[in-house]
Design a protein that fits this description.
By secondary structure, the protein is an alpha/beta fold. The protein is built from eleven helices and 15 strands. Helix 3 links the parallel strand 4 and strand 5. Helix 1 packs across helix 2 and helix 3 packs parallel to helix 4. The chain starts with 17 loop residues before the first strand and ends in a 5-residue tail after the last strand. The chain binds (4S)-2,6-dioxohexahydropyrimidine-4-carboxylic acid and zinc ion.
Length: 366
């Protein structure tokens, strides 16, 4: 099986038709719970060996016991035959006991903690009102080497929604990193050139995930010919120069940037509403979507770094053993999908992508 070769061209100069990739991981995903979990998780498990699972359920996952129970529900929803490891996260609140975090990490239940500023996004009402309330927890995390995953937006209503990420850097992140220089931090789903520059300039303890949707769309997508709720997510997509900065960072090969889909399904009816929910469901075609970006940027030789290597290295986990193969084959994405008893509109709905997953090696359970 030919492996991917530099920049989408083979030795004779024609374009590459196959990409062979060490099995990737998704370092940020929303799998939800209940009836929909079974359909949602298998879209992820078919492509990714591991995933960092977001804890913003109702109620949020704030104890090791709740995370272990959620992990069991996820595992029993995965199709038999697919090897998939959910990596659980703890939802930080103003009053969380540092001992719970330490115990959950020591027991191997929690892989990381997630910081949602209170009311920043979906199910974040119990989030943190002031980072000063977290000092005890962050001290423990720094000491035990547990990563902090940040939704980096201020929630101040006086700050323009398109500026909330950049202002978060100035108002919160700079001080947090200075106060906890040994803490490993992932700036999740970055959307701005400011975030790219900040991550690049920071020390090795700061990294960032980048979603497929923020690599494909800018804010115009939400308003093309009318309101397009299926392109609305948080942080919201920004202007074109920001998208271009994100693409450059993702394909740069820098170990500081890695794959995190932020796939976040909502029933179509909850998005096509007077007050539509934030979130884009991209997991049915996430890898194919990222592959298009790397190909368009002439950077297929750096796809494996972004998708399969930088994340585990940052988290201190082994690289996966298996491989996945993508083939240049038309990949039609349905306009709507039924998941459990819900209709959902996926990212790229109605489009035909250029890549399809054609082979999985070492991906199934033996
Ligand atoms: O768009 C988003 N949807 N952003 C988030 O941070 C949360 C997510 C969700 O859970 O739906
Ligand atoms: Zn998310």
């Amino acid at each position: 099986m030919p492996s991917s070769v530099p920049d989408g061209r083979n030795q004779t100069g024609s374009s590459v038709d196959r990409i062979r990739l060490r099995r990737p991981d998704d370092w940020h995903v929303h799998l939800r719970d209940g009836a929909i979990l079974r359909s949602v998780v298998n879209h992820t498990a078919r492509q990714f060996a591991r995933a960092i699972v977001m804890p913003n359920l109702r109620p949020p996952v704030t104890t090791a016991a709740a995370a272990a129970a959620y992990r069991d529900r996820i595992l029993s929803a995965v199709d038999p035959g697919l090897a998939f490891t959910p990596l659980m996260t703890c939802y930080l609140t103003d009053t969380l006991d540092p001992l719970e975090v330490e115990r959950g990490f020591a027991e191997g239940v929690f892989a990381a903690c997630k910081l949602y500023p209170a009311n920043a996004t979906t199910n974040s009402a119990h989030g943190v009102t002031d980072v000063r309330n977290l000092h005890g927890v962050l001290e423990v995390m720094q000491r035990i080497g547990m990563p902090l995953l940040i939704h980096g937006e201020v929630t101040d209503r006086h700050i323009d929604i398109f500026d909330r990420e950049a202002v978060f850097i100035e108002r919160v992140l700079v001080k947090l990193l200075a106060d906890f220089p040994g803490l490993k931090v992932v700036f999740e789903h970055i959307t701005t050139a400011e975030a790219v520059a900040f991550v690049e300039a920071a020390g090795p303890n700061l990294a960032a995930t980048i979603t497929p949707h923020h690599l494909h769309i800018n804010r115009n997508a939400m308003f093309e010919g009318g309101i397009r709720p299926h392109f609305y997510c948080l942080p919201v997509a920004k202007r074109e120069p920001h998208r271009l900065a994100l693409r450059k960072a993702a394909v740069s090969g820098s170990p500081k940037f890695f794959l995190g889909t932020d796939s976040a399904p909502h029933p179509a009816a909850d998005k096509e509403a007077a007050c539509g929910c934030a979130g884009i469901f991209n997991s049915p075609c996430a890898l194919e979507s990222y592959a298009m970006v790397f190909e368009e940027e002439g950077a297929l030789s750096r796809f494996a770094a972004f998708a399969s290597e930088n994340g585990p290295r940052f988290y201190g986990l082994p690289l996966n053993e298996g491989f996945v193969e993508l083939e240049r084959l038309p990949h039609p994405v349905p306009a709507r999908m039924t998941l459990g008893d819900q209709e959902i509109v996926p990212f790229h709905a109605g489009e035909t992508l250029r890549w399809s997953i054609s082979g999985l090696e070492g991906l199934e359970k033996s």
